[in-house]
Amino acid sequence: MTDVLGHLVVDGNDVMEFKLVHSAKDIENDETSFGPEMCHQVFGENENIFGYTDLQIKLYYSAGSLQTYLGISYSDKIDPKKSGGLKADDIEGELKKVLAPGYVTNLDQFISNLERDRTFKPHGKLLHSFNIEPNDGGEKRTFEVYYCETSTPGFLDYHERLQTFLLWYVDAASFIDVDDDQWTFFTMFEKCKTSEGSTTYTTAAYATVFRYYAYPCHQRPRISQVLTLPPFRKLGLCAELVQAIYSHFIIMPEVLDITVEDPSQDFQRIRDYVDAKNCENLPAFHPDKLFQGFSPEMANQARSKYKINKKQARRVYEILRLKNTNTSDKNAYLQYRLDVKNRLNAPFQKKKLEMKKLEKVLKPEEYAATVSTTGASETHGRLSSQYLALEDEYRRVIHRIQHY
Prior knowledge:
Blueprint: H1 2-5, E1 9-11, H2 12-15, E2 16-21, H3 24-28, E3 33-34, H4 40-43, E4 48-50, E5 52-53, E6 56-62, E7 68-73, E8 76-77, H5 91-96, H6 107-117, E9 125-132, E10 141-149, H7 155-162, H8 166-169, E11 183-193, E12 199-214, E13 218-228, H9 237-249, E14 259-260, H10 265-279, H11 287-290, H12 296-306, H13 310-324, H14 330-361, H15 364-370, H16 376-403
Parallel strand pairs: 2-6, 13-14
Antiparallel strand pairs: 1-4, 2-3, 5-8, 6-7, 9-10, 10-11, 11-12, 12-13
Helix pairs in contact: 9-10, 10-13, 10-16, 12-13, 13-16, 14-16
């Protein structure tokens, strides 16, 4: 049966098509299409969809307000009467669980609704506006960042549509509890002028930030979810968005520092870039002081000026010291590597001290069952591998600082 029905199993990622639509012309333009990076959070762990021939799933969003169209088409569908009771997967049923209410399944209705997008204006307060000059010499592009809270009129309905993108691009994503008024939102739009002279907005990126309480009367904002939509990647928009978040919070005396919830490797690299660019001109991070090692002065200036916590300030120090180290100078490069490796090895040294304490209070057989069998050579290999991966990440950040 598996061999016979194998052609009715497709990878959900291969049959899904997304668009951000301004007009009916965009629907016919293949260049406006983009696909998901994952679909297991909707269609299950194996990401397969069963029961259809020539399946296509279309999720089109009006570019500004994200009014949604769902189209499901196929040439044939399995008949339970002819397949021993096997049924095709309920595609719309699964999508209905995650799509915001109000989506349409009639394409003509969706196209007619696009007229309403002409008057769409971003919700909230304008924080930041900037231009990007394309590398191909084309016209400059303008982007704007807006700040919203749960109480911002009209925003939560828009956010309910916006957050659906998380499921296709952020692993282990979850929808946030918007009943908690400590959530804040930062949205980014591309702003364009039409040939008729009107202004249109296209959703490009967004971030959510939760304002945690910090004793006794402070806040510790934590960046939670950050997403740049595929058509707007490789433009430097995420760095601009992170900087806008910083600029919003660093002027607030009640904010201690800004943290990030479980950052991905890509986001950590962007965070490192923004923080290193910001701290590079602080007196504590002057090249002469970098070679003296990480200092309380660096941690204090990074926090007071840019709300960077101590752990992240240490990464910034390591990035900027590497940037200023002549790696052709064997001794200078060796001193740098040892400094970073000592920091990487600190948790394991702490664990060794704890094991020595245990050895004094446990019976020999109990201690033998507890102690790690990792040898010195294996520890050295782990540390070396960990350092090389970290230096590679740092060099990517430094390259961006130097060239962009």
